[in-house]
Every structure is written in structure tokens, then in C-alpha cells.
Input
Amino acid sequence: MDGPGAVISYVPCCGVCGLVPVGSRAAQTIYLMLAEKRPTRPGTVPYLDLGSETVYYWRISAGGTARRMGSLKRSEDDRIHLLHGADPGFSTESPVGERRILQVRQALDEILRSTPFRASAQCQRLLTYLVDHSLAGQYELLRERVIGVEVFGREPDYDAANDPVVRARVAEVRKRLAQYYLSAPSSPWPVRIEIPSGHYRARFDHAEPELLPSAPESREAEGEISEIESIAPAAPVSPPVVVAPPAAPASHPMGWLRPLFMLGCLVLVALAATLIFRSVSARRSDAFNQFWAPTMKNSMPVILYTGTNVIYRFTPEFLDRYRRAHHLPNDGPEFALNLNAAGPIEPQDLLASTNAYLTVGDVTAVTAITSMLAKRGKPYQLRYAGDISPGDVHSAPTVLIGAFNNPWTLSVTDPLRFVFAGGDMIRDKQTNRTWIVRVKPDRSTTDDYAIVSRLLSPDGRDTIMTAAGIGQYGTQAASEFLSNPAKIADFARTAPAGWAKKNLQIVMHIRVVDDAPGSVDIVSAYSW
Output
């Protein structure tokens, strides 16, 4: 497939592998796309089957074969656009001028080399994909499922509702773009690249408007006459006709009220929108304030206690033997060892570090809660390992971070209905139901569970909260729940009456997507 008019020589098959047979309807359609100079570079190409009203996506390889990747049922409006050649997925001309394309490419290169993007190959690949297809006007390829297939290697029929990898990663790209523009020099940008919220199409804001080509000068001004004009017979000269100017329309005696009426309507719409926004914000704030009221009213600083993870390290003597054996005299204690070449490892060659390391999920959880407390002017103290006593827990509002790595969490929740058990599960003591995290052979997981607890003292002035997951993803999601007014408001809508003055336990299920917490569902809750 080198260009328009190229012969398509696909191998016939039984239909299982998805190759396009010679002479088939799909092959003819792709041939027409070549003849009409539509894009033929390797990538994904949409094809509309008029009979089934379905768009099939074909992957064009560099060798010239086309493999069907999946399909998508089209709406009536989309079919009309395709039938009339207006489908943006088949655009052959970029909506951006050549000079602007160069500016966008230069801006994209600078962004990809910047600190926010340099360490994330996935964000680089995603931003490049969005910019490339936005420049080419191929908006059909900027759908969530197509991006999931093209950029993240998902199967064409994957469930985007339960696998929000595209939404999560596009949000990450927006955040990194904001970091780039905040940290970069303040000089004017030739072009600014943005991914508007709710869209996957890139937007390019240019510092200067693009100059449009001026209209060609009339040839009659140079005394030239077109060939058609010279051949056409001279039209008879008609006497001049005097046209009287139209009479001015009679003004309505109440016409001046119309602008005032329109202005009044706009004011009413704006006022209604403001009231609705304030009402929603007030409901969210009310639920959030009720949830945190006992903690915020307490005059003592909030104690945030984080559990630590045990790490086993090699002893200095073992590392010295390894350095001498492998001629590494200058390597420090953090270098990586080739365990296959290290010889026998005895128990006395290892040291247990019990109070020195935290997981990334626990650190993220602490950051979310401390940021929320700081915005509200509430003082707090960070504690970990052995830096806490029973007197601290019972004399000041406390938030316990983590579960199996935090003995205080296990102790506090053990008498309650929902408890952590077995090292990998949450158990409901009343129904004996369990929620278990399944770990794959490569130690990865697609799910996690967490418990958010809020326990009130008998006088209602002190609180103990837990943001604890079976794994670090659950702990991170639990802390985001505690620090997010919208999520607490969602819970309050279905919570039992009087929940604000009761003890609470909430069990959450977390989808894990690309080593990050994704969608969160509340699977059970209890108040007393």
C-alpha cells in the first residue's frame, strides 16, 4: 500500500484471523480510500458497512496487510456524516496551517523533553497520539475505545466502563501539562497545547492569529478580460433604473422594552445557575463538615499515624564479599546484586529494617489528608513506627493510615463488624462474607478493598478514623474518600438517617488500572 491506486493483495482467510480477503467489500472500500488519497500510513482505519450500519476498525501494517481490530455501532448522525464524506476520521487535510503545524510540533517536542513528561513514556506516547490525530483532523480516532486499543494495547472489545485507563491517563496528561506551563519560563508561547476537560481532542492556542491569504486582485483592474467574457455577446444597454431607498420601518411604540426583557432573562438564567451551583456546593460542604465535625471542633492537633513496611537488606559483610568477588570497590550499599552470581545466601546475611520504609500508597494517603487539613487551618502531627502511645490515640483526634502494616489499625478495628483477616481479605463478622484480593503470578492485581472507619468517643468530642486498604491502592482510595467533599456527599445521600452522629464503617472496592486506583464502589456500610 504505497499510494493511491496501489493493488491490495490480501490473503483470503476463514475470517478467524481478521485478514481482508481479495475482492471482499472491505477490501474494495480500503481500495477506494487509497484512490481518494485518504490516509494509508500504518495505523487504525475506520470502515463503514452500510448493510449492518457498523464501523469496523482495521489495523494497516507496514507490510500492507489489514487486520480487523473491532467494531462499533454507529448512530444515525454519524452514519450521515460518513455517507456524505464529512466523517472527521477520514479527513485528508489538516485543519491547521503548515506554519502552525510546525509550531505545534516544536512545542510538543519541548513538552516531551520537559521534567513533567520526561519520566513517563506512557504520558509521552498518549500526548503524541492526541496531538497527531488532532492536527490531522482524524477525530474519529480520538474515541476512548480506539485510544485504549491504539495507545494502551487493550483488546478492541474491552469494557471501557470497568477499565478507565484512557480517562485516568488523559487526566494525568492534563496535570503534567499544567505543571509544565507553571514551571516553564513566563515568556509568550508561540503555541500552547491543551486537552480540554471532557474531550480527547487537543486544542492549540496560538499567540498570534494566523494570516489568511489575501484575495487575488481582479483581472479587470489590469485591463484583461476573461475568455468567457470575450466570447459572450454584448448585452443590450438598458436605461438606468432609479430605485427609491426603502422606507424606514415604523418603530413599535414599545420596542425599547425588548432589550430590557432579554437582559432580564439573561440575569435570571445567571441567577438560577448561581443558586443551583451554590446549592450543590452547600450540600457537599454540609455532608463533609458533618463527617469531620468532631475532629475539627477538637482543639488538639490531628495525629496521622502511618504503618511501616519490613524490608530485608544484605549485611555490610555480605556486600563486602560480593564487591571483592566482582571487582566493585567503589559501589555503595544501594547497588543491585546479581543474585545468580552471589553464591549461597544464609539467614545471617540478611538484616530486617522494620521502621524505615513506607509504601507510595501510604505516602499519597498522608499527603491527601494533610493537604485537606492545611486548607482548613487544622493543625496536625505526623507519626510512624513506635512514635505513638495509647494515651496519644485516646486524647487527640487520630487518623490511622494502612492496615496490615499498621498494628494500631488492626487493634482498633478488631472488635468492629468489618475486620482485616488472613493477610489478604476483609471479613464481615455478621454475615461471614469476605472480600479477597487476588494476586497474579507476577504479583500484580486488578482489585483492592479498603475500610474507612469513624469511631466517636462517648462524649462525641474525640474521633479515631482509619483509611486502610488490604494493599496500598486501597489505602490511597480510602484517603481520597476522606479528603473529597463530593465523595462524602455521595455516601451521605444513601447513608442511614442520623449517620453524622454515629460510628461508621464503610467497605470500598477499588479497580486497579496500570498500578493506580481507578473507579471506587461502596460495597457495604454500617452505622451504630
